[in-house]
Amino acid sequence: MLIRPILGLILTAFMALQAVAQDTAAPSETAVEDPRAATGGATTLEDILRRQEGLKVDNSFRMTAPTGAPPSTAAPQLSPLGGLSDSDVWRDLRFNQADVTTQARGHAAGVLVQDAGMGWLMFREGPLATYGAWLLGGTLALLAVFFLLRGRIRIDGRKTGRTIVRFTSVERFGHWLFAGSFIVLGLTGLISLFGRAVMIPLFGKESFATLALASKWVHNNVAWSFMLGLVMIIVMWTLHNIPNRHDLKWLAVAGGLFSKGVHPPARKFNAGQKMIFWGCVVLGLSISASGLSLLFPFELPMFAKTFALLNDTGLPQWVGLGVLPTDLAPHQEMQLSQAWHAIVAFVFMAMILAHIYLGSIGMEGAFDAMGSGEVEEQWAREHHGLWVKEMEERARSAPGKASATPAE
């Protein structure tokens, strides 16, 4: 049931991102029949209505003068004081064709008009917030239903009273650095997105302004801890999360999550944990890349090159998005980075909610692995039997080092 909202969010986002990145349609193939021809290229009532409804408008008539020549070479329309008319000047500014000189330095300084931001704002306050809220709410609802039907997954066998070291202190530190910073980033990100609509009516504008400013500062600085934690888990656990044949057996019975007494073989990480790990790696790297682009505005553009690579694969055309634009203004790069950052964050949060559930109230004994680092021996045998055998073989080959210790 989670697949539909996720696909809906991503597909809607890609369509909105295309509209944000390309606010001009292809030139009309039947320019002679263009209703603007009779008015010298003036905006029609249909154009105004489509723009008000947030629909794409054919702006190709603005890109050329009535003669069909580019604005820079077309015969100017004289104003009462001579020179170019205001409409010509604004047209050149809007489509970044004016010869602009500014005292400010930077990639975005010469772009004075960039109206694709309205498409970004509508996507942010519309599909992004709506589908994102449904995704998180739906995930929580499914977990609640699963808990009511399945209950807490208990240790089936008799507890031994002995524990096995599951994770070292370094592993637990890397995990909690990554997990704790992600929770903080998720909460502050939600405040930034939903704060105006949810918190201002409750706390007022002044209180929310203080909270929003603090959230932004925390979000920007905790991001470095998140990226450090991501590097740590990649270094520590990548080799343990390489898929193997035992994962197929685990997936065949869904890890015993829906059946009591079913315990498929698994090593240090089972197939479900491996999916969480690789999800964290892929989504973590993606959200870090877009986050760095936002932390250093206009310095790390990435979407123009990404769109060019995607166009070469033919994937955008196959899903109905057409050819993605590769000539993007600096502001458009930032808008796309923010939109993508939020999309990945929602999918990431939905996945982590399921992980938190199973690692806490969903499964008996699971939290001990990242709490104290030691787990009940019977729990380890049921959920990671092959790993327990490996630990016992290592203990036999290294006399004096016991694989299990009495529980306190």
Secondary structure: elements and pairs:
Elements: H1 3-21, H2 45-52, H3 60-63, H4 86-94, H5 117-150, E1 162-165, H6 169-203, H7 205-237, H8 245-252, H9 271-295, H10 303-313, H11 315-318, H12 330-358, H13 368-371, E2 374-376, H14 377-383, H15 385-397, E3 405-406
Antiparallel strand pairs: 1-2, 1-3
Q: Can you describe this structure?
A:
Residues 1-21 form the signal peptide. This is Formate dehydrogenase subunit gamma. Belongs to the formate dehydrogenase gamma subunit family. There is one protein chain. This protein has 408 residues and is mainly alpha-helical. The protein has one domain: Up-down Bundle (Fumarate Reductase Cytochrome B subunit). 60% of the residues lie in helices and 2% in strands. Strands 2-1-3 form a 3-stranded antiparallel beta sheet.
Radius of gyration: 28 Å
Note the quaternary state here.
Answer: single chain
**Largest sheet, if any?**
3 strands, antiparallel
Cα distance, first to last residue? 43 Å
Gross morphology is elongated
Read across the widest sheet, the strand sequence of neighbours is: 2-1-3
SSE string, helices as H and strands as E: HHHHHEHHHHHHHHEHHE
Stated plainly, the CATH topology is called Fumarate Reductase Cytochrome B subunit
Number of domains: 1
Low-pLDDT ranges: 20-32, 65-80
CATH class: Mainly Alpha
Helix content: 55-70%
Number of helices: 15
Short structural summary:
The protein has 408 residues and is an all-alpha fold.
